[in-house]
Amino acid sequence: MIIIMEHGATTSQIANVSARVEQMGCQVHLSEGQERTIIGVIGNGRPIDREQIERMSGVERTVPVLRPFKLASREFHPQDTVFPINGVSIGGNQVIVMAGPCTVEGAAQLMETAQAVKAAGAHALRGGAYKPRTSPYSFQGMGEQGLRLLAEAREATGLPIVTEVMSPEQVPLVSTYADILQVGARSMQNYALLHAVGEAQRPVLLKRGMMSTIEELLMSAEYILSHGNSRVILCERGIRTFETYTRNTLDISAVPLLKQLSHLPVLVDPSHGTGHWELVGAASRAAVAAGADGLIIEVHPRPEEAWSDGAQSLKPARFAELMESLRSIASAVGRTL
Predict the structure, then answer these.
(1) Most Cβ neighbours (<10 Å): which of 93, 219, 267, 286?
(2) Domain membership of residue 8 as a residue range
(3) The pTM is what?
(4) Are residues 106 and 45 in the same domain?
């Protein structure tokens, strides 16, 4: 349930209520809005005496949260979650674009791409140092060398970097380099990894699993939030259906639905969502029009030579053209890019 404190409730009153909840064996999560404080109560399975809580000084009322995802729900946190990363505000009025190669292939390739996406107006650099691949014989990424190259690209361009972490053991290493830890679609329900990135207290980009429901995505976010790590970004990247003409089926309806159910920022990955560079532009514009807080797009200077996902990667010139068209879409829905 959530405890809604009265307007003007004192720090002492909030502390007293929190202490009483903890005495009941429950966890407390505070959400401080502009006008009032909401105390989220995560139970231990035992019933809670709501009337007893409501009699405490400073309490306006209690409200049961019926959804299984408590901390991720908009009931718990009515305002949109907004947080900065290296000067970039995620979840606010500005639509954020993260762009870069699927895989870090070398210093020259990465730096060329980083400078190109920066010039086009991207707000963050994406790139994989560790790559989960269907085949064990495919390129698996450059590992720590790739992380070092990403850090060098950040130093040269000022762009914060987002890169995937695949196991709990990798979290400390990747955290020393990355500004945002990406949990990929294949890892969305790797609960040990979710606990680890939650404990790391680093921003997390959580991708929806290829066969996962909206509720399953939000429950995965709950694992991270349960560690007090509120900087979680949800990412719709397409789900697997019977359709074969696209790599996945991009669920645009997930964007307004997630914004309705949750306070967390929502990004869309039109590259994995479609699998074809020719479709990335239209899917990107549709995502922004639907209310997405940002996009994560694959860009490569020579897609025909890419070591992975070349077919869905935009060339820098096409990415620059897309950014121009996105500015118009963002403006039409009352946002900036």
Answers:
(1) 267
(2) 2-63
(3) 0.89
(4) no
pLDDT of residue 77: 86
Structure token pair of residue 121: 């107006």
Domain count, the chain: 2
* Residue 242 to residue 74: CA distance in whole angstroms: 32
Q: Is residue 74 part of a domain?
A: no
Residue 197 lies in a domain: yes
DSSP calls for 31-89: EE-SS-EEEEEE--SS---HHHHHTSTTEEEEE---SS--TTBTTT--SPP-EEETTEE
Instruction: Output the DSSP codes for 163-188.
Output: EE--SGGGHHHHHHH-SEEEE-GGGT
End-to-end CA distance of the chain: give it in Å, rounded: 37
Scan for tokens 């409501």, then name that residue. Answer: 54
DSSP reduced 3-state for 3: strand
10 Å Cβ neighbour count for 304?
A: 9
Instruction: Give the tens place of pLDDT for each residue, 34-79.
Output: 677 888 888 766 677 888 899 999 999 888 877 889 889 998 888 8
Residue recorded with tokens 């901390």: 71
The position carrying tokens 């970097």 is 161
